[in-house]
Specification:
With 741 residues, the protein is an alpha/beta fold. The structure holds adenosine-5'-diphosphate (ADP).
Length: 741
């Protein structure tokens, strides 16, 4: 009986990029399970108004929407839904459509409203029966309303999920804006005060400030102590004195002082003008932050939570508490909806009552950590001096990855801050052997946070044989006490070799740490490596363009992406762009697969499909190359569709690092410097590699490296994202027998 009832989905409150990807996933997951699904247009207003504001959606209705910002089903504020009258009407409208399950995508207001509605449901149904608007028999089929919430909010202000839908895209907008302002500000030696969104949440301001390399940040959760105006001016003055040409102050719209008085962007500007004689300008980013195409992360994350929302609804019983589906550490999580809403509201309550310590405590651990890191990085000059100065060398090894420069900037400054002498090595181990080593000062890395590529240069050389003695000699000659290798697979191999040869070469007995930087995301001990998010965004943007180039014909695109033997970029870009098929080395390609895929494609085009996107990892199969696959498709597709290939190549390695890569590069660099400092203080010489495991920074002993990797295919033995492949496929491949469900 319950199976015939449908799912309703609405977006409510502020719109957020990624809502469309969530909608697509909700609709297609429901359809693939044979459950009818309805869009409720214009949020709760549509639910109260009913009629054609509630319409069934088919598989193709949600095709080609993932790259679009905002929400295609609209959102609105609705006063009536705050009244029982309004909700009574809404219940009648849902039942008229056979809906008793809801996915609500919105902020805390929307989710609170949904929960009120759910709790009232049986009394609303009873009232409809009493007033003769509903028959007893029909009412009996709708004993409860199942509810699940997804958080759509650019502010990232929600308990129960690491990231809300839209926050990463907003950060992309903010970071791009700050980058642009930095270049003009530097030309005129100007100061910009940049106001970003966030009434009770400083996430966008803080992360934007870190990603943009700003000088000062003001957030609601941690107001500055009184006298902050003077301290801010002193800091900016010191920055200028040490050679900075521009200053950027980022302020959240909800910033306030310790007494709870709002701090406006204009007030900051006046302070700068009056106390520093600065030509300061204010830029309020406003709704630009909300709009625009969703980032790769907002597409794949929203896809996963949309999928999980339907799975959750389909297993709901009258007793089950509504859940909030979120992401923690790249995994889907579910937690009681109202608990999350309450915890979220606690932050605003704490801020409004001046309990800032509690407000900071309610934020995640990494938020506090990042606040401290920002303060250390933005102080214009090194803070600490040590009695015993150590010399730490930085070098790259392996392919270039966006975010390497960001990591170098953070490591140099945080190292200097710890009182170390920081040395930079040019061109990896080649440069180390050739003695291309310089001392690096604070200002030398100014502006590096936003730069793509690898300013220091890198090489793929893994020292072996005679090299080892040369490396030992260089380490001795330059009195290097500690080594930070920011790089990919070859960097890890090199570090491991030095570690193994410690008995032979005394100079290798220094603390060594590797920071994962590779677009391939093929490094052990880290769920993500620096550069992978930027590469993913580059691929997804390229795929958007490729898809747009085929408007009028029936066409299959086969796109080859990088990753060596690691399928991360292929799978995640496939999921973020709705590719029908993704070929990975981890899963292999067989003739049977190809045959089935051709069949699916033919079926699709016969049913009116116009475009098919296939992604192939560059090393997916030695013999079934991109050309071979294209030839097969072409021959079998004949008159039905044509085939084009695109090999994306090196555009995937370039580009300014994404906000996520900048933030994580900074976070990891801070931990690496901390690790080296501790080792040097203790006089020990651990060798390690660092990374994210379950979202937390973890340090592994280099000795573990061989046990954690598949040496033949140069990738980690465990890859968390592989289990997402079936979901990506299920949402892209229509099963025609369930059509019109
Ligand atoms: P957000 O969901 O982004 O926090 P709002 O707080 O404006 O945005 O909520 C959006 C809509 O959700 C409101 O216009 C209203 O229809 C509904 N809503 C919000 N709070 C409640 C509530 N307490 N009870 C019923 N409906 C609510």
């Amino acid at each position: 009986m319950m199976l015939s009832t449908g799912i309703g989905v609405l977006t409510s409150g502020g719109d957020a990029p990624g809502m469309n990807a969530a909608l697509r996933a909700v609709v297609r997951t429901a359809l693939s399970r044979g459950v009818p699904v309805y869009a409720i247009y214009e949020g709760y207003r549509g639910m109260v108004e009913g009629g054609d504001r509630i319409r069934p959606l088919g598989w193709d209705d949600v095709g080609g929407i993932m790259h679009r910002g905002g929400t295609i089903i609209g959102t609105a504020r609705c006063r009536e839904f705050r009244t029982r009258e309004g909700r009574l009407q809404a219940a009648a409208n849902l039942i008229a459509r056979g809906i008793n399950r809801l996915v609500v995508i919105g902020g805390d207001g929307s989710l609170t409203g949904a929960d009120t509605f759910r709790r009232e449901w049986s009394s609303l149904v009873a009232e409809l029966v009493e007033t003769g608007k509903l028959s007893r028999d029909t009412a009996a089929q709708y004993p409860f309303l199942a509810l699940v919430g997804l958080v759509g909010s650019i502010d990232n202000d929600f308990y129960g999920t690491d990231m809300t839908i839209g926050a990463d895209s907003a950060l992309h907008r903010i970071t791009a804006a700050i980058d642009a302002l930095v270049s003009t500000a530097a030309s005129h030696q100007r100061t910009f005060v940049v106001e970003v969104m966030g009434r009770h949440c400083g996430y966008l301001a803080l992360m934007g400030a870190i990603a943009g390399g700003a000088d000062y940040v003001l957030i609601p959760e941690n107001p500055p102590e009184s006298g902050w105006e003077d301290r801010m001016c002193t800091l900016l003055r010191a920055g200028r004195a040490s050679g900075r040409r521009e200053s950027i102050v980022v302020i959240a719209e909800g910033a306030r002082d310790r007494d709870g008085n709002p701090i406006s962007a204009d007030y900051v500007r006046r302070v700068l003008e009056e106390r520093m004689g600065e030509d300061a300008r204010v830029t309020i980013l406003g709704h630009v932050q909300r709009g625009g195409t969703p980032s790769a992360f907002d597409r794949w994350m929203s896809t996963l939570v949309g999928y999980a929302a339907v799975e959750e609804l389909l297993s709901a019983t009258p007793e089950s508490e509504p859940q909030l589906i979120g992401m923690r550490y790249h995994r889907i999580t579910r937690q009681p909806l109202m608990y999350c809403v309450e915890q979220t509201q606690q932050v605003a309550i704490a801020i409004n009552s001046g309990d800032y310590q509690r407000a900071m405590e309610l934020r995640s651990g990494s938020f506090k950590e990042m606040f401290q890191t920002f303060q250390a990085l933005s102080s214009a000059l090194p803070g600490v001096t040590r009695a015993r100065k150590s010399r730490i060398a930085l070098l790259h090894a392996g392919g270039p990855a966006p975010g390497m420069n960001t990591a170098v900037r953070a490591a140099v400054r945080l190292g200097l801050n710890q009182g170390h002498t920081m040395l930079v090595v040019r061109n990896g181990f080649d440069g180390l052997i050739a003695g291309e080593i310089d001392e690096c000062e604070w200002q030398a890395v100014d502006g590096w946070g936003a730069m793509g590529g690898a300013e220091l240069g890198t090489s793929r050389r893994v020292p072996a044989g005679e090299d080892l003695a040369a490396v030992a000699q260089a380490l001795t000659a330059h009195r290097i006490d500690g080594l930070l290798i920011i790089g990919g697979w070859n960097g890890y191999q090199a570090a491991h070799r030095l570690y193994q040869e410690r008995a032979t070469y005394e100079p290798f007995n220094i603390p060594i740490i590797c920071l994962p930087a590779s677009i391939n995301n093929d490094l052990p001990g880290s769920e993500l490596s620096i550069g992978a998010d930027t590469a993913l965004n580059a691929i997804v943007e390229a795929l958007d363009r490729i898809k747009q180039s085929a408007v009028a014909v029936r066409r299959t695109f086969v796109v080859e992406v990088m990753g060596r033997y690691c399928g991360y970029l292929a799978l995640m870009s496939g999921m973020a762009s709705g590719a029908e098929q993704v070929y990975l080395h981890e899963e292999g390609i067989t003739l049977d697969n190809l045959r089935a895929d051709i069949q699916t494609m033919i079926e699709g085009f016969r049913h009116g499909k116009r475009l098919s996107l296939i992604i192939r990892n560059e090393y997916a199969n030695r013999l079934y190359t991109t050309d071979v696959i294209c030839a097969l498709f072409e021959e079998e597709g004949k008159d039905l569709f044509d085939v084009r290939r695109a090999v994306l190549g090196h555009l995937q390695q370039g580009g300014s690092p994404s906000p996520y890569d900048r933030i994580q590069a900074t976070r990891l660099a801070a931990r690496c410097i901390h690790f080296l400092s501790e080792e040097l203080d203790r006089g020990t010489a651990a060798a390690a590699f660092i990374g994210f495991v379950n979202g937390k920074v973890r340090v592994f002993d280099l000795g573990e490296l061989p046990h954690m990797v598949d040496a033949t295919y140069r990738r980690p033995k465990e890859q968390w994202w592989l289990e997402l492949a079936p979901i990506a496929r299920a949402l892209a491949q229509q099963k025609y027998d369930t059509r019109g469900a």
